[in-house]
Amino acid sequence: MAEEDVYTKDGTVDYLGNPANRKETGTWRACPFIIGNEFCERLAYYGMSSNLVLYFKHRLNHSSATATRNNLNWSGTCYITPLIGAFVADAYLGRYWTIASFSTIYVASLERINYSGISLFYLELQISQGMTLLTMSATVHGLRPECYSKDHCHPTDGQTAVTFVALYLIALGTGGIKPCVSSYGADQFDDADETEKRHKSSFFNWFYLSINVGALIASSVLVWIQDNVSWGWGFGIPAIAMAIAVVSFFSGTKLFRYQKPGGSPLTRICQVLVASFRKHKVEVPADKTLLHETADAESNIKGSRKLDHTKEFSFLDKAAVETEKDDIKGTGDPWNLCTVTQVEELKAIIRLLPIWATGIIFSAVYSQMGTLFVLQGETMDKFVGNSTFEIPSASLSIFDTLSVIFWVPVYDRIIVPVARKFTGHKNGLTQLQRMGIGLFISIFAMVSAAILELKRLQMVRNNNYYDLDSVPMSIFWQVPQYFLIGCAEVFTFIGQLEFFYDQAPDAMRSMCSALSLTTVALGNYLSSLLVTIVTSISTNNGKAGWIPDNLNYGHIDYFFWLLGILSVLNLGAFLLISKWYTYKKAIGTLR
After folding, report:
1. Tens digits of per-residue pLDDT, 57-100?
2. What are the C-alpha distances in Å from 6 to residues 19, 25, 69, 189, 524?
3. pTM, to two decimals
4. What crossing angle do the helices spanning 340-366 and 509-538 adopt, rounded to 10°?
5. Angle 208-214-217 (CA atoms, 0-180°, nearest 5)?
6. Which value, in Å, is the radius of gyration of the alpha carbons in the chain?
7. C-alpha span between 263 and 433 (Å, rounded)
């Protein structure tokens, strides 16, 4: 092997800061530690979130609509805070130290940590007590709501406040992990090496599988513990899982490859906007090779390859036009003159936004698993067969997880090779084709949920079951809607993970991963907004509304139909946008 082939060509280094050796770092040898961290973190997250709507309703005494809104708002915040973690990763700390820091923030208080001159002083703020505080709010006398029976508690305003403070501290902690872990795993495969690049697509599939194995344990074992043992243990075990996640991640330090942070991506974006506005009267030359770019093989952005010029959004090209004023000043002021690569970074982000927007409706559909699906299941027969074992309604999400666990290897080992024969594409399907199939499948998940609720309400009306806590219809009739969402996830969410990583500029990959995660946040907020709107409208003139406390008097089937219609319109928009999309073209290497 030639000496230049010993090292990666994507600019990655080892933990000592030396060029990363292909045979000693990265690839699948490093991924188990990253996947292990994600498995434990997701077990912790879903261990809290899967049953949270019932904790709000039964322990904090919230109505069905309020519990649904509060759960959606918190879940949404967990997917907004990644923008903070992503900015820190891309601009300052890099993905490794951002994951390490926020994983620790997630779980327990730490002393000051110093490494390679980086002082992580903010860990002393004890934000990390979020999970500990949540556990205490469910166990410690004075913090725990006083309950007279399993489902009838009387929390004080202070006790409710403690719970929400704990939850939003956790949301802050998870913000540094979510946008970086998948990107960091993908960083372990050299984009400039075709063999490693092929493995990268497979990594995203198995990475998402690990998420769902964690979710499987959370939605079965932990939910059962919360319902049948105690909320203290139900919240305490996730805290232990996060401690294991931290240990797993640090264990792989010597095997990891590290991308150097490229400086503030927001600053570079603003520089392009300012420079193009200042030169709004300047003509862009017909010969695009005359636009400003570094003469070196590498771009002037640390950790980023050069990007080829694209025709769209030509107004922004003005930022890269060299003028006499630029020559006279000779200062290379980036607020007056930007490189083509810097301009193309902004163009890449703009092209991603329409695709990003179509993920919001899908995420609103996905969010129903933690809200209305759970409340729907509460009104059904939860006993398994003729036994006395009662399955918690939140545990039905196990079938979503099983669906993902089933479809990931099927997609990776069967669908991809078969599709490759017909399409000739190295991954079988393009990322956009994969996402579109998932959007299509999600429509049927809402149709399935709506039909089930329609049948359940017919049983209620025909037999006058209005005042029964649960009707004699097995909760396992919910399995199809969960299974369909799981199938849709494998196509849309994994495709989205890979798409936003692959199409992101090299020095903005954490930011773009965070951008993709905000669709989940906005999906939750959209669902919360829809709940608020339909509750306000449907309860006029003293009516029970679509989502009353007693769902036997409601019509959540209407809500499912509403989401189904929005999903059809969203799919149409996605197909139009996909035809317009232009893929990013990176040129050159970083070594």
Report:
1. 888 888 887 888 888 888 878 888 888 888 888 888 888 888 87
2. 9, 11, 54, 14, 46
3. 0.78
4. 40
5. 140
6. 25
7. 33
